[in-house]
């Protein structure tokens, strides 16, 4: 949020924006993408695992590969266009949140049952 705030303040006409406003918008975006992204990742995993049994790591890889340029684009455009930066942050975080449910599931089927609680704790 601080980086977005500094980018917005550098634009003419945005001198009255506060860090609290930016933090609220960023938090709303993060919460929304978490609510959408985690179940979407689980759905994609269930859907693709029927036909492709090893689809989970590929879904995680696509999410990470998509998130990096989207979030980098948000950092580069925040000083020029705030709305575009927020949209890029939304889709970048959505791509990142695809991984949460899948990684937890992969951990459970990779680690032997007697070590799962320790593996979950370290994750």
Automatic annotation (TrEMBL):
InterPro entries, A to Z: MFS_spinster-like, MFS_trans_sf
Primary subcellular site in the record, as a coarse category: membrane
Domain of life: Eukaryota
Record membrane topology: Multi-pass membrane protein
Keyword hit for Transmembrane helix: yes
Localisation per UniProt entry: Membrane
Alphabetic keyword roster: Membrane, Transmembrane, Transmembrane helix, Transport
UniProt-recorded name of the protein: Protein spinster
Lineage: Eukaryota, Metazoa, Ecdysozoa, Arthropoda, Hexapoda
